[in-house]
Structure formats: structure tokens, C-alpha cells
Write a structure and sequence with these properties.
This protein is mostly beta strands and about 130 residues long. It is built from no helices and nine strands.
């Protein structure tokens, strides 16, 4: 369990986001804190991208997963997935095309992952990405 984080580079430095000093506690990681026990959506890589980008989504138990991409005005650009999935780590790719197969305009887009379990638990995660041809 990570209990504190300290910046070793001044926060206003151009490198502030790259160097962190992390203190790790001596406690064991519980199942609840384990990353693979939670619904997670990684940041896409590469970002910005021009041809293909990829995310990893962890689904902790079987359920319905919906993955959609929107433009910054909230308009649906692409539905990537909407189906029942098993638990596990999924790799999701997007090639910068819309639902009609045409390349989208350069700009910022939002990926939304919605997850619904059989027990009625509903979660939604979003990330921003940049498409540049």
C-alpha cells in the first residue's frame, strides 16, 4: 500500500510529473486494494496517436461492458464494444475511425467504459485521448 508521495523536483518544473519519491508501507496488500480486483481503465498508449492506440481494461468479475468514444461535444463517435465479458484483463484498440469507418478529425476524444455486474453494480470510467493524423 502506498501511503505517501513526495515531489523531489519542484512542482513548477517541466519534469515534475516524471520524478516522484514514493514511500511504501509495511502492510500487506488486501484483495480489496489489489488492482486486479477493481474495474480499471488504463490511459491509452500512445497518446497522442495517429494510426492506432490501445487501452487495458480490468474486469474483476463477469458482467456487461460497453466501450464508446465521444468527441468533446458529447457526440458518439464510435461504439467499440457492448457485450457480456468474462473477468480478466482486456486489450482494446482504436484506429481513429468512426462508426462509418471514416477517420475522425484531429482533436481530443473521450473513451467511456461502462461496466454492469449481474449483482447490479454499475461503474463508469473515462479517459481523454488526442488523435493527430
Amino acid at each position: 500500500v502506498i501511503d505517501t508521495t513526495q515531489h523531489i523536483i519542484p512542482p513548477d518544473s517541466a519534469f515534475a510529473g516524471f520524478f516522484l519519491l514514493v514511500n511504501v508501507a509495511d502492510t500487506a496488500v488486501s484483495d480489496e486494494d489489489n488492482l486486479l480486483q477493481n474495474f480499471t481503465l488504463s490511459q491509452n498508449y500512445p497518446n497522442p496517436f495517429g494510426k492506432l492506440t490501445q487501452w487495458q481494461i480490468n474486469v474483476p468479475q463477469p458482467g456487461r461492458l460497453s466501450i464508446r468514444i465521444f468527441d468533446t461535444r458529447g457526440r458518439l463517435t464510435r461504439s467499440i464494444l457492448s457485450e457480456e465479458v468474462d473477468s480478466g484483463l482486456l486489450n482494446i484498440d482504436w484506429d481513429g475511425t468512426n462508426n462509418s469507418g471514416q477517420h475522425v478529425a484531429n482533436g481530443v476524444y473521450i473513451i467511456e467504459a461502462k461496466y454492469n455486474t449481474a449483482t447490479g453494480e454499475n461503474k463508469s470510467l473515462t479517459k481523454r485521448l488526442v488523435y493527430l493524423k
